[in-house]
Each structure stands twice: as C-alpha cells, then as structure tokens.
C-alpha cells in the first residue's frame, strides 16, 4: 500500500560546479515559544521542520529520504569550531558564485564583506555611550552619600563647585563650597561637632545600604548572570562554550544599572572589569543583525573578541591596551582580521568616551598625570620590591578568595545572597567612613595618589614645610616630611588593611563587581607609602652610595607619585598575571610613557613571584572553581598517558559505549537509546559485530527527525532508520554485500534514510595516541570530541571535559571537579 510522506530536501537548482555541502542548513522556521529557562532571550529556540517548501511523493519501495542538519547548540554545550568555520567558508563560496547571476547578488557580496566592520562600529559606539553614562551616573550617585547640590541636583560635588567663589579643599583634597550641601546642612545643622558627624555617618551608611540592596535585588530578580565581573565567563564563551542568556539584553541592562549602584555603595569593588562583559553583550546583540555572525557561533566569537577590546578601551581610555588584553588574556580564536577589527572597535569606543567627557578633565583617561620627572637607576630596587609585594598579594588573594567563594558555594551562606550583600554593605560603610582615604571612591583615591604635589596643594600628602619650589608647578620635596605626611601615611596604612580585608569577602558576591580598581588601589597605597619612605631616606642620607650620584643636585630625585603608579601595576599584575597588555594599559591610563621600564620590571616580577605560588590568575581560578570546560591554548602540559587511559568507557569499566548502527536499528531502538542516554553526539558504526566508525550524528538532529515522523506517520516502531543515502547505495558496488543484514531487515519493512544527518568526517585517534597530541588536537582544532579506535574498531570517546578532568587529576590528584557537559 503506497503512502504519502512529507520530506525535507535541499534545493536542486544550484550550480553543478558547487561541491555538495554536508553542513548546509535546511529550510527551517524558528518556534515562537522561547526556552522557559531563559525567558529573556530568543536565540536558543528549538528548530522546527518546515514542510511548506516540500513535495509529496509516493514511495513505492517504502523508503523515505530525510535531509536535515541542525546548526544550533543547546545551553552549556561546546561549539564545533571545525564545522562552523567550514560552514562559513561554504556559505562564502556559494555567495561568491551567485555574484555572476545578478547585480543584486554582487551588492550582497559587498555587504557581506563589510558587515564585520559595520558590526564592530556599532559595538564601539554603543560601548562608548554606555560607558559614558555609567561613569557620569556613578559619580553622581557616589557623591549622593555625602550630600546634594540643591540648586542643581543633577550635578555631582565637583561639578557643583566648579563656578563657586568660595571653593575650599579639605586635607585630602576634597572640594567644599557653599553651593554643595552636606546632609546635616540639608536638615538644618550647620554647626560642626559630634552631632554633625553622627548625622553624616548615619546618612552615609543609609545610602550605602540602599544602593547595595537595590543592586543585589536587580541581579537576583531580573538577571542572575549580571553578577561578578564576567571576565571568566567571557573567556570561557570565547573558548567555544555556550551560556544562553549571559550576553542577553536583560543582562546588559541590569549589569549597567547594578554597576552604578554597587560601586556607589562603597563596596570594595570596581566597575572597570564589568565593562568587558557589557561590551560583549553589545557585540552579541548586534551580531544578530548580520546572519553571517548571528547564525554561526564560531564567527560570532570574532565580534566578541573585538567587543572585549572595546570594553577595556572605554573603561581605561586604552585602545591599544584593550586589543592586547583581548589577545593575551581573553580570546581563544584570534585571526589576523580580528586584530584590525578589534583595533577599530577599541578606537571608536575611546573616541566616543572622549566626546562625552565623563571625567570632566578633557581627557578620555581617569588618572592623567602631568609630570615626567626622570627616574633614577637606584629606584629599580624599590620598583622590584613592589613587584615582589604584588606577586605575594596576588597569590594571597587568589587562595583566600577562592577558599571563601568555595565556602560560600558549599554552605548555607550561598542561599542568603541578599542578606550577605546587605550585611557586607553595612560593615563596609561603618568602617570606611572613619578614614578620609577610604571614604572617597577608590578611583578618586588612586587619582590623588598618582598625582604629584603642586605649589598650591595644602593637603596632608604634600606637607613639606621646608620644601623648595624648583619649578612653578611642582614641589621639589627636598626637605623632611611634615606632620601632615606622617598622618597621611598612617591613614593610608589603615586604609590598606581595610581594603585588603574587605576585598577578599566582597569579590564573588551577587552584584556586578570588578577586581581591577581594588587591586590598583591597594597597589597605589603601597607604592605611595614606599615612595615617601624612599624619598625621606634619600633626603636624610644624600651621601649614601645609592643616592650619591642622582641626589646630589638641589632637585627632587624621588617622585612618590611614580611609586603609586608602579605599585598599582604590580598588584594588578600579581592578581591577573597579565604582562604586556597590563604595561600598555598602565601607560595609556596615566599618560606616563616615560615610566614604561619601571612598569615592565614590576609587572614581570609580580608574575614570576605569583607563578611560584599559584598557577594562573584570578580569572583562571574562577573558571576552575565554576567547572567551566575551558582548555587554555597557552598552557603547556607534560603528560605521559595515552588516549586509552582517558577515554570513556575505560577498559576496566563495565559500562558500554552508546552508539548507532548504520543500517540495522529500528525507530524504537533509536528512540529508546535517546531516552536511556543524554549524550550530545553518537558515533555511527557499520554493525555491532563490525564496529568500524562511519560517522557521527547529533542528538538534537535525531530528536527533530523522530518528532517530525511521529507527527506525520503511524506505526513507526518497526521502521528502519538508515544513516545512508540512495546515492551511496548506487555509487558503492560493495554496498549490498556489506549490508546483508540490512537487505534482510528491510525486505518487509519501511525505511527512513537520514544519511544527510551523518557527519562522515569525525576526528579519530588510536588508543595509543599520547595525550599531549590529543590535547594539541583539541586546542588547535577546537574539537568537541574525538573517537578512539584500535585496529579501526571503535573503543571509546574523549570529550573536552574528559581532558580537563584528567589534567586536574594529574596535577592535583583530585577527581571531585565537576564540569558542564559539552
């Protein structure tokens, strides 16, 4: 009895010289129902088969051909770099071949060529605008804890006092004017005393708690992925991992608002690190305007790499440093054309930030310095000392912060995220208000510490009673430090203790938070203290062998502000383990190109010392803590094992490997296999008795085929599913003799041919292949998995998570790590 079946076929009117494309997308429609687990995004919808462009055929032989290849990835899966890049190359060849048909196709070809530049242009513009808005909003909200400009409430304290005729400065260089009203003055208290201090103290704690509570509520209710800096996750995503919703629209919005609130709350965290996450959200959103990138995960990562560079560029005004940061620290796949697009994207972002002028200094950098005092050769000793301290700080912070994050994750504390943030905000605000150097924001503190003393400065850090004014702008601090400097040193020392203690417990809470500015602040405090000590030693001992040559003249031979810059570089390098990009970011951040050698020495020393205690930086440590399947392509492995010792199932295990046969499995067999296992991919072999690998097929493709057949056919349990095509049986003369079981099975059975689902080019290694070779294959080819064979027969499979688990077991003999399935 003849039956009519709906089939899905590729179009046959393509040019004959084009190769057969095994990775072409079928005619599909996107379901209007989004994934319930991620209600705010629509790029993870299921693919439904579209029968509108198909024809009904009567198949007298009972054989049906199905042509379907799925190109989407499920959540928490690893992409297939080889297949995605090959699919893009075929798409480009097809587009180029069609240019001969019409002028419109030629225009489409040109549009495809410059779509990447247009996409990174949009990313740079959007990242720059968002960064400018966040910087302006953060400054205003931060100053709201201290008071308000009643005549123009939208102005922060610095802007409110710009045109004031009664402008004064405190002993820490904070503006005071009649136009700016502190909260005691708003409530009618103008007298100084214990009452005014207590009211200011209460209002500071009140606003800090309100801002922190608002930030954590936004994250918990609307966008859980908006917490943290996002750099470890971005690094994992660029390595080929899928995290649906992490770069979505809601995450972008909530992280932008939450950053302003969390930073303004006074918590020991920064907003510069999360700019990388925000820029990558912009890159992900704009990539969907261009199908070349939106429908290809491997190509999309080129846009995300450029977006990461723009994130650093808009955060620090360092476009070159942003490109190097993306290349050195973030990106996994970084072709040459991505380098130029990253440079262009970073440049556009920096230009937009400069046009907005959020810092009010006419520059696109936060910590601009206006001095270029030459450094002496003997100062290399304290510079290296700062590098050593930075490396020790990095090792200490990584170990303690990971220990605390693991404790939070495995204890009941992780269930009370809101109470943790609110309690931390109360404790932090209660402590930091008592010290004028911690009361101000960390960005303002770093700006004070890296600035050289001027003639008009009457602050504690510049209290040199007997100083000589060598130039009209700078103080030549050839004189003993006054009581103000001693008081400032003690206050800075206590500020250092407070920040070191609090940042360990703050980084990792469920609010948007970055580690870059806290590390730079701690390093700048340490550097300024060591700089003042070195300066006083040089003044009091001018005949000492180290100071005799450089400090003999009547001029300033030591610049304490320079030590703050070097210290910030060293401590940030100790935590992140960055070197080249860090040095470039620092001299772009400050404009101090003269001091590139001290910065290089401090950064390299910090990395060497830190590597002696902890392998990898803080971002790598959090990737390992969260169990993300990230295989670093810069790390070297010295393993003596073979593929047989890593594959699953291992010879000593009794579990069997799940696989499909080419021509002998019924519809019910395949359906039962999918119910009993949860693998992403299945190998296809000839027969159970002859397990020679012929290809691989994705689980999701099988699910779509089974679903579509159930909708249009009945009595499918005995229907045979063959991973072959009609052309294969025709072209292969030995096909009938090699598939006698098939001939017997299909004599009285209906057959569904799904040969176009089969990927006939899987990566195969032998069981005696060294693991160093296997790891190189996975890193350089971006593999998801590889099949292990012996004498051509299938023995097992190796996935990326198997390699990561094996590496950890070999390095720490710990098998408790859990990695997401890929």
From TrEMBL:
Keywords: CBS domain, Chloride, Ion transport, Membrane, Transmembrane, Transmembrane helix, Transport. SMART domains: CBS. Its main location: membrane. The chain crosses the membrane at residues 114-134, 201-226, 247-269, 275-291, 303-327, 378-398, 418-438, 489-509, 515-539, 560-587, 593-610. It is a multi-pass membrane protein. It holds the Pfam family Voltage_CLC. It is found in: Endosome membrane; Membrane. One of its GO terms (molecular function) is voltage-gated chloride channel activity. One of its GO terms (cellular component) is plasma membrane. Residues 758-816 form the CBS domain. Belongs to the chloride channel (TC 2.A.49) family. This is Chloride channel protein.
């Amino acid at each position: 009895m003849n039956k009519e079946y709906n089939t899905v076929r590729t179009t046959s009117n393509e040019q004959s010289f084009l190769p057969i494309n095994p990775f072409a997308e079928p005619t599909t429609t996107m379901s209007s129902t989004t994934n319930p687990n991620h209600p705010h995004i629509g790029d993870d919808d299921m693919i439904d088969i579209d029968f509108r462009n198909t024809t009904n055929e009567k198949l007298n032989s009972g054989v049906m051909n199905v042509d379907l290849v799925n190109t989407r990835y499920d959540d928490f899966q690893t992409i297939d770099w080889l297949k995605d890049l090959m699919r893009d190359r075929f798409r480009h060849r097809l587009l180029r071949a069609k240019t001969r048909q019409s002028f419109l196709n030629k225009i489409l070809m040109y549009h495809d060529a410059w779509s990447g530049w247009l996409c990174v242009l949009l990313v740079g513009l959007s990242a720059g605008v968002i960064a400018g808005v966040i910087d302006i909003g953060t400054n205003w909200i931060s100053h709201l804890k201290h008071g308000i400009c009643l005549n123009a409430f939208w102005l922060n304290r610095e802007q409110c006092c710009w045109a004031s005729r009664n402008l004064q400065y405190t002993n820490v260089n904070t503006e005071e004017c009649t136009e700016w009203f502190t909260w005691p003055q708003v409530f009618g208290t103008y007298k100084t005393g214990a009452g005014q201090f207590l009211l200011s103290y209460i209002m500071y704690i009140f606003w800090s708690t309100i801002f922190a509570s608002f930030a954590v509520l936004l994250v918990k209710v609307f966008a859980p992925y908006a917490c943290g800096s996002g750099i470890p996750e971005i690094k994992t995503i660029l390595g080929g991992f899928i995290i649906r919703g992490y770069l979505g629209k809601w995450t972008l919005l909530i992280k932008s608002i939450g950053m302003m609130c969390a930073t303004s709350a006074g918590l020991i965290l920064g907003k510069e690190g999360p700019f990388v996450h925000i820029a990558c959200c912009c890159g992900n959103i704009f990539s969907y305007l261009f199908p070349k990138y939106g429908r290809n995960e491997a190509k999309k990562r080129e846009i995300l790499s450029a977006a990461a560079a723009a994130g650093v560029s808009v955060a620090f005004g360092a476009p070159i440093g942003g490109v190097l940061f993306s290349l050195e620290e973030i990106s996994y796949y970084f072709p040459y054309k991505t380098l130029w697009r990253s440079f262009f994207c970073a440049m556009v972002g920096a230009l937009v930030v400069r046009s907005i002028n959020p810092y009010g200094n006419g520059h696109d950098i936060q910590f601009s310095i206006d001095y270029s005092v030459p450094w002496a050769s003997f100062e290399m000793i304290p510079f290296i000392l700062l590098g050593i301290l930075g490396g020790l700080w990095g090792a200490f912070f990584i170990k303690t912060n990971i220990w605390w994050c693991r404790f939070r994750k495995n204890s009941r504390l992780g269930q009370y995220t809101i109470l943790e943030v609110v309690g931390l905000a109360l404790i932090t605000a209660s402590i930091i208000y008592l010290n004028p150097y911690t009361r101000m924001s960390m960005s303002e503190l770093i700006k004070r510490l890296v600035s050289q003393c001027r003639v008009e400065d009457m602050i504690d850090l510049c209290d040199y009673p007997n100083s000589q004014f060598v130039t009209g702008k700078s103080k030549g601090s050839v004189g003993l430090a006054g009581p103000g400097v001693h008081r400032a040193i003690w206050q800075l020392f206590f500020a250092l203790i407070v920040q070191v203690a609090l940042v360990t417990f703050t980084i990792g809470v469920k609010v948007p938070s970055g580690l870059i500015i806290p590390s730079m602040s701690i390093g700048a405090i340490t550097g300024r203290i060591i700089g003042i000590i070195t300066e006083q030693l040089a003044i009091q001992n001018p005949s000492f062998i180290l100071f005799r040559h450089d400090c003999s003249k009547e001029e300033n031979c030591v610049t304490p502000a320079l030590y703050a810059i070097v210290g910030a570089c060293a401590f940030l390098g100790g935590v992140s383990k960055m070197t080249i990009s860090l040095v470039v970011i620092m001299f772009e951040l400050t404009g101090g190109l003269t001091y590139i050698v001290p910065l290089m020495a401090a950064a390299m020393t910090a990395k060497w010392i830190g590597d002696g205690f902890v392998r990898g930086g803080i971002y790598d440590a959090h990737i390992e803590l969260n169990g993300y399947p990230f295989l670093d392509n810069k790390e070297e492995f010295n393993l003596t094992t073979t593929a047989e010792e890593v594959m699953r199932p291992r010879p000593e295990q009794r579990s069997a490997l799940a696989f499909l046969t080419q021509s002998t499995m019924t519809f019910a067999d395949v359906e039962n296999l999918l119910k009993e296992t949860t693998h992403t991919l299945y190998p296809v072999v000839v027969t159970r008795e002859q397990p020679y690998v012929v290809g691989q097929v994705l689980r999701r493709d099988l699910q779509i085929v089974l679903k579509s057949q159930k909708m249009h056919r009945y009595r499918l349990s005995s229907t045979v599913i063959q991973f072959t095509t009609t052309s294969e049986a025709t072209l292969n003369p030995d096909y009938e003799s090699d598939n006698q079981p098939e001939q017997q099975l299909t004599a009285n059975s209906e057959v569904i041919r799904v040969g176009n689902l089969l990927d006939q080019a899987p990566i195969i290694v032998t069981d005696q292949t060294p693991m160093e070779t296997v790891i190189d294959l996975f890193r350089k080819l971006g593999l998801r998995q590889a099949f292990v064979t012996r004498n051509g027969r299938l023995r097992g499979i190796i996935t990326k998570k198997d390699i990561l688990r094996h590496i950890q077991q070999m390095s720490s003999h710990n098998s408790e790590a859990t990695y997401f399935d890929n």
